[in-house]
Amino acid sequence: MDLKQLEAFVYVAKLNSFSKAADTIYLSQPTISSHINALEKELGTQLLIRSTKEVYPTKSGLDFFVYAQNMLALRDEAIHSVAQGGCSIKGEISLLASSVPAQYLLPSLIAAFQKSYPDILFKVRQSDSEQVGKLLSNCIYDFGITGTKLSGNKFVQVPFYHDTLVLAVPACYSTPQNLSPETLKKLLRTQPFIMREDGSGTKKELENFLLHLNLTLEHLNTVCCFNNTHGVLQAVSSGAGISFVSRASTAMYTQMGLIKTIELNDFVFKRNFYLLSKKEMILQPVQKLFQTYLLNYYKELQ
């Protein structure tokens, strides 16, 4: 077993493609196949399932991937420690992110990061918070970002951004800026409500918030459901109903006069966004750099 074989396996597993892996690490496809065949023969187990349409890891492949990536991370860290200051930092960071961070937090963060580190490529996949946890457990991603803390102890979950959820209403609504508990309860019971999908961090936080009002989701007059924040805001701006959304997502809509937002000053409706990494994974230098940058970036902003 050598590092070239491990690298070939890791990139095929990450990219689900022999050809993409070959292009990425500048080897021919036959060489990639040879490396993986040798690795499977040495380990005595199949690591990848190959079909005409796709390539993906077996259960043994997923288990071995963690160890293979950790060995490559140690190699990269060793090289980085003796070569610092010599050349620019290069690499790739793959992120799973829930709706709000994917659409409203990561774009500005990545733009700022790449001004200092232009040779680092980002690959971002959007999902809801619940799915981020499932995919980060079973698939090949470096980090997850969620709008609620996930249960269990599979991940290191670091809070990095403090968010406030506000009530978004159509611009034509005549609603006081400060709502009493009774007025808010009446509003939520009677007005059409735009809901997020099951698995959404926003929906989970909404359920917790409603308990303080002695309400449940069943008390709301839900008229439609969207799987992302942009859809919710579009529906609100079109007059379809009201909804709770992240304050971070509302700037453009309020500036253009498309919606109004109501701060819930008498209530605590705040949450954290979390950066997730797998506990057993050793972070590569590029991943450590991004993690540190992200935490410092939002610490300075807030």
UniProtKB/TrEMBL annotation:
<dbReference type="GO" id="GO:0003700">
    <property type="term" value="F:DNA-binding transcription factor activity"/>
</dbReference>
<protein>
    <submittedName>
        <fullName>LysR family transcriptional regulator</fullName>
    </submittedName>
</protein>
<keyword id="KW-0805">Transcription regulation</keyword>
<feature type="domain" description="HTH lysR-type">
    <location>
        <begin position="1"/>
        <end position="58"/>
    </location>
</feature>
<dbReference type="InterPro" id="IPR047788">
    <property type="entry name" value="LysR-like_Sec_metab"/>
</dbReference>
<dbReference type="Pfam" id="PF00126">
    <property type="entry name" value="HTH_1"/>
</dbReference>
<dbReference type="InterPro" id="IPR005119">
    <property type="entry name" value="LysR_subst-bd"/>
</dbReference>
<dbReference type="GO" id="GO:0000976">
    <property type="term" value="F:transcription cis-regulatory region binding"/>
</dbReference>
<dbReference type="InterPro" id="IPR036388">
    <property type="entry name" value="WH-like_DNA-bd_sf"/>
</dbReference>
<keyword id="KW-0804">Transcription</keyword>
<keyword id="KW-0238">DNA-binding</keyword>
<dbReference type="InterPro" id="IPR000847">
    <property type="entry name" value="LysR_HTH_N"/>
</dbReference>
<dbReference type="InterPro" id="IPR036390">
    <property type="entry name" value="WH_DNA-bd_sf"/>
</dbReference>
<comment type="similarity">
    <text>Belongs to the LysR transcriptional regulatory family.</text>
</comment>
<dbReference type="Pfam" id="PF03466">
    <property type="entry name" value="LysR_substrate"/>
</dbReference>
